[in-house]
Hints:
With 377 residues, the protein is α/β, with parallel strands linked by helices. Helices cover 40% and strands 14% of the residues.
Amino acid sequence: xxxxxISLMEVLDVLDIxxxxxxxxxxxxxxxxxxxxxxxxxxxxxxxxxFIPGHHxxxxxxxxxxxxxxxxxxxxxxxxxxxxxxxxxxxxVHFMAETADxxxxxxxxxxxxxxxxxxxxxxMADIDQTEEGWEAMQEVWGDTILPLTYVNSTAAIKGFVGKxxxxxxxxxxxxxxxxxxxxxxxxxxxxxxQHLGRNTAYDLGIPLEQMAVWAPLKGEFExxxxxxxxxxxxxxxxxxxxxxxxxxxxxxxRDKEPEMKVLVHPECTFDVVQASxxxxxxxFIINTIENAEPGSKWAIGTxxxxxxxxxxxxxxxxxVSLNPFMCPCLTMNRIDLPHLLWSLEKxxxxxxxxxxxxxxxxxxxxxxxxxxxxERS
Length: 377
Ligand code: 13P
Ligand code: SF4
């Protein structure tokens, strides 16, 4: 973070600062056909030495080249099974590439085709804020707290969590991981997504009154009850994409299309998740739609690239976005065909650009947190 609530990526964006990682001009002059053909050619040339993981939120022009498509859990798992891949151009966002780097061998190189592909949620918890918040929490509750972090967090936060005996979670195993965490300690600190934390804890039967919020920018708790009753401390972070779905969208839909089912990601707010018919990770959303009855109608509350793809791949079902004015995740969209091709052409020329490397001292503890999750998934 470079200032209150502003990330370095956002500042670079606003100032449109050219850096050594920016894309040479000639890529804007190539046609899509030319770029597609070149990516195919380079992939064929490298064979198994190249492995491209792609998150479900990636654009079609990019996801078509993914050797494995998945949610964040699946992509983390699959990266551990590809020791033959020398180069891993990661089609996703920065925290996913960091995770891939930490779970692969020292000679494997993870590349993020555009360094601006960050995640605003991951930027909402930096390590200094976390250390400060932890100190305040220890003063109130002593040694009764286990930290868990959503994988949508920096390697430094994963390292912090690993050092304190905690684990990472993804949206597909958050419930199981929270159950495990309560076998370890009396209270849980859940970083950085308050919504996933709240939705999951509530699902486990923890009432809202037993959840406090830690507001890192103010350095204070947002909680009105008896602190002794608190079971879960939610870090005040959120996904700016999933917060764009609100209860009004669901009410309008229930009015106009009462037979339409509402299916949302648990990064949505508590109200939205409670008012939906079903909620789950991106894989859960995909499986639900694939197994749904032909003719069924669905309003989906997640990122637009995925919703559009589901609509295209399931023409026998009616699929719309829960928010008709929804946009895609801007940072996920930074990975486009020109950037992918550029990073691959550089590899072809023997140069690795935009390599993601997590320092060993951070990775050591972060891997502990990741492995505690992977062993239980
Ligand atoms: P999952 O892939 O775990 O569903 O997470 C969604 C997401 O927001 C990734 O950034
Ligand atoms: Fe981050 Fe939300 Fe985009 Fe996922 S969808 S990368 S959580 S901003």
